[in-house]
Amino acid sequence: ENPLNQNTPDNLAYVIYTSGSTGKPKGTLLTHHNLMRLFAATDDWFAFNEKDVWTLFHSFAFDFSVWEIFGALLHGGRLVIVAREVTRSPEDFHALLVEQQVTVLNQTPSAFKQLMRVACDSSLPMPLQKVIFGGEALDVASLTPWFERFGDQTPQLINMYGITETTVHVTYRPITLADTHNPVSPIGEAIPDLSWYVLDADFNPVAQGCSGELHIGHAGLARGYHNRAALTAERFVPDPFSSDGSRLYRTGDLARYRSA
């Protein structure tokens, strides 16, 4: 007899350890609710479905894999597990994408740069519909050869800024050929159930065009760090713009609002 499922949305779904710039690993606590709302909040943008074929390219120690695994499973799609040696060979990986008819590809910009070289030289058609970047800052100008070969509509290239502590992704920005003339990495708009603020050291909003620390709030925030109460209090701070006990996550990343 199967045991009763007594899980609730607030139960932990996973713990991922990251070291960041400190070199000392910290376990980030993410709940089932965090994960489920990520896909619900982005559904209008992506409309993933059972016809999609995904790859599990990344290690399960990297939270990009959470997006890959559950993006396929929650929508009834197919997940192709990529062998480690194939992830290290852009030629073999390109062949796998063609053979398995992959439609949704998630890549760090540095990994995609190697794949792009092979794909642009190949005559084999790829059925890709979406290429989603994460994990690193995107040098948009480096995508020029891809756009010259494949255009900027199909597949659609999307940049998503995100942090483990905010459940994989925070922002969404489709990338086009026009963006290749932009010297900065555009991160776009926040996922609808998240908020973000660019603040100074005293938690005041900075003026448009000025740099400040990016803070993230609302639905995607982790519970905190496992057995690291002091660090949790340092990085997950009270939201000065809310009276309901909400928190903000201090990313440590500098950002600015552009005028256009």
Automatic annotation (TrEMBL):
Keyword set includes Protein biosynthesis: no
Domain AMP-dependent synthetase/ligase per the UniProt entry, residue ranges: 5-226
Pfam families attached to this UniProt entry: AMP-binding
Annotated Gene Ontology cellular component terms: cytosol
Keyword terms, alphabetized: Phosphopantetheine
Obligatory cofactor(s): pantetheine 4'-phosphate
Keyword hit for Repeat: no
InterPro entries named among the record's database cross-references: AMP-binding, AMP-binding_CS, AMP-dep_synth/lig_dom
Signal sequence extent: none
A GO BP annotation: amino acid activation for nonribosomal peptide biosynthetic process
Alphabetized GO MF terms: phosphopantetheine binding
PANTHER family: NONRIBOSOMAL PEPTIDE SYNTHETASE, PLIPASTATIN SYNTHASE SUBUNIT B
Protein name, entry field: Pyoverdine sidechain peptide synthetase III, L-Thr-L-Ser component
